[in-house]
Each structure stands twice: as C-alpha cells, then as structure tokens.
Amino acid sequence: MIWEITDIPNTVKMNFPNTRFLVMDPLFALFIAPRLFKSKFRNMPMIPVISPEAGLFFYPDNFDTVVPMHSLPRISFFLTVVWSVLFGLHFYIWARLIRDMGVLEPWKTRLTLLLITLGILIPSGLILTRFAPRVLLAPVMWVIYTWLGMAFFLNVLLAVTDLAKYLAVILPVGLRDRPVDPERRLFLAQLAGGIVLFSNFGISLAGLIGATASAVQVKKVKVGLRNLPAELEGYRIAQISDLHVGPTIGHDFMETIVSKVNELAPDLVAITGDLVDGTLEQLRKHTDPLRDLRADDGVFFVTGNHEYYVGDVDEWMDYLRDMGIRVMRNERVTIQKGFELAGTDDISARGGDHGQNIPKAL
C-alpha cells in the first residue's frame, strides 16, 4: 500500500517543486527512521517518506533530514555487514569458550541461548534508543555497552591465545607428523579459555570503573602562540568534548563534569560536539547542569555528528542558547583584543541551513 502526503511544509515545497511525497514500506525502515513512533505518521503502518521524482528519502518527523535515494542500497549493505560482523564475533566466542571447552548440557544450551540473546540485543537496543523512555532504556543500554566491550576484548584475547597455541603446540606436533592428543587438546582449550575469561573480567572491570564521572581526568595542554598579547598570557580554555549524554550518561555525571570544569576557573569554555545521544524531550533534565558552567568570557558550543542523528538539532541549539551558551554556526566572535574564536557546523551537517562553511567562519 502507498499513501500520498499532501500536508507538506511550504519550505519543502519551495525546495522540491512538482514533487509528490509518498509513504511506502521498506523493511529496513526500522533501522532508518530515527523516532519511529513519535513521527507525525505514527498511525500509518508504512513509515518512510519517499520522493521517486526527486530521488530523496525523508524522515517523516523531520523534513530537514534528507537521504538521497541512491544511498539506500549502501545503507542495506552497511546493515548486512554489521549483522555479519556481529555473527562472526559471537560465533568465535561460542566456538572457543563453549564448544571447544567441552561445556556439558544443559549449560551448553543455556550459554548458547544467552550468547544469541546478547547478539540480537545489540542492534535491537540501538533501535529502542529512538523511542523508548530513558528509564527503561538505561539498564538495557548498560548491558549492551558492557557486552560490546567484553565481546571485543574476548575476540582479541582469543585470537592471541589461538596464535600462541598454534605456534607452541599445534605447529610443532604437525611438523613431527603426529596427531594432537584429544585430551591434551581439550586441556589446552580449557586452560586458554580460563585465562581469556579471567583476563577479560579484569579488563572489563577496569573499563567500567574508568567510565564513571569520578574517573574523568583533566588533561592540561599548553598552547604556544606567536604574537599573543601580553595580557592574554595564561589564558585558560576548558574544552569539553564527546560527553554523549544519553541512556547511560545522565544528570549526576553532568553535575560532576560541570563541577570539575568550574574548579579550573577557566576564562572560556568550549563544548566541541557530540554532547547528546538523544532528543531534547528525552535528555533535557540530564543536560540541565550545563547552565551552571562559569567562565569570564562565556561558554561556546559547536555541533558534532551525533547532534544530527537524533533529528532535533535546532531544538537542542535553542535550548543551549536559553542556558546562555553561545552556539557557533560558521562564524567567529572577538573574545578579547587579539583573540578571536571561530566555530563551524560539523562536517557531517546536512539539511536546511546546516552545513560546514570554514571560509565563512574565518
């Protein structure tokens, strides 16, 4: 089934005259539509808005977000690659830590089902981030992000132990033209698997501790500039980047970051993108501590690519401005005599008046 949409914003009509906007049903819309159940077409069973004549794909809840139709095969290819990689990573873990270690029933089946569930949970959780309430999403994403880290290190550690086993045991035995004793093979698999699991537990624990706000380190960098006016000697800029406020990073984390920055008594604060991984509706209260940032010459913000993933970048910009944060959009501003600050949209910015323009900023 296909519907034609006639209630099109005037700005879209001006940019795409003589264009029909149709709602259709590509199966992978679940992976593309950023806020599936919050779109203005949520009551329709078909989600994406497609213009065959103009060759464009529109997110239904944000007509500023446009994806060329010719890029849809690449998106499909990308999703195929992602699923293949996820399958490969999880199969390798299953083969080495369940099958080769001789895990007996019923634990073999239970652990296999757990591994399958964790593998499916990764893409499913990323879809849920677009419309699920944060209170429900947070524990799910903690599991996903923790497992992603553990799965990566498990594969690395297993690859290292496989290489060591091959060079130290399998290759020498093969050169002597003798079969590997099955009991010895099982013993080596269990020994290597135990070492991998123990090492992975330690690495994962260290990673979880390092992901807390209390573990955030302040890195001091001295920047030497020729012809810098004497009165600007010792000028301090606090740069905050890639906070990714979202399902697992919230209000308490932000309060700690803001407190650490204010303790530095900076002259200027620069927030350099990837601030959020969610909509303003989802994360407003979690970013609210930013209004407490203090700097004599102000707080400034430029977008990163993640600001454009959620579909309401303009609403985020207005919200930051309301907090007293200066959003830099391909512009520069004089801070003090002899010092100008420039900021641009992210290089990935697309749609409406968004787009990086370095010459304009300079």
Which structural class should the secondary elements be placed in? Answer: alpha/beta
* Number of domains as seen in the coordinates: 3
CATH superfamily of the largest domain: Metallo-dependent phosphatases
Q: What's the tally of helices?
A: 10
Q: What CATH architecture of the largest domain would you give? A: 4-Layer Sandwich
Distance from first to last alpha carbon? 50 Å
Q: Work out the helicity level.
A: 40-55%
What does this structure look like?
The chain has 10 helices and 11 strands. It is α/β, with parallel strands linked by helices and about 350 residues long. It has 3 domains: about 70 residues, no CATH class; about 130 residues, no CATH class; about 140 residues, Metallo-dependent phosphatases (Purple Acid Phosphatase, chain A, domain 2, 4-Layer Sandwich). The strands form 3 sheets. Strands 1-2-3-4-5 form a 5-stranded antiparallel β-sheet, with no helix packed on it. A 4-stranded parallel β-sheet has the order 6-7-8-9, covered by helices on one side. Strand 8, helix 9 and strand 9 form a beta-alpha-beta unit. The chain is elongated, with a radius of gyration of 26 Å. The two termini are about 50 Å apart.
Keywords:
3 domains; 13% strand; five-stranded antiparallel β-sheet; Purple Acid Phosphatase, chain A, domain 2; single chain
Itemize the secondary structure elements and their pairings:
Elements: E1 3-5, H1 10-15, E2 21-23, H2 29-32, E3 49-51, E4 56-59, E5 62-68, H3 72-99, H4 107-128, H5 134-175, H6 182-210, E6 237-240, H7 251-263, E7 268-272, H8 280-287, E8 299-302, H9 313-322, E9 326-327, E10 331-336, E11 339-343, H10 358-361
Parallel strand pairs: 6-7, 7-8, 8-9
Antiparallel strand pairs: 1-2, 2-3, 3-4, 4-5, 10-11
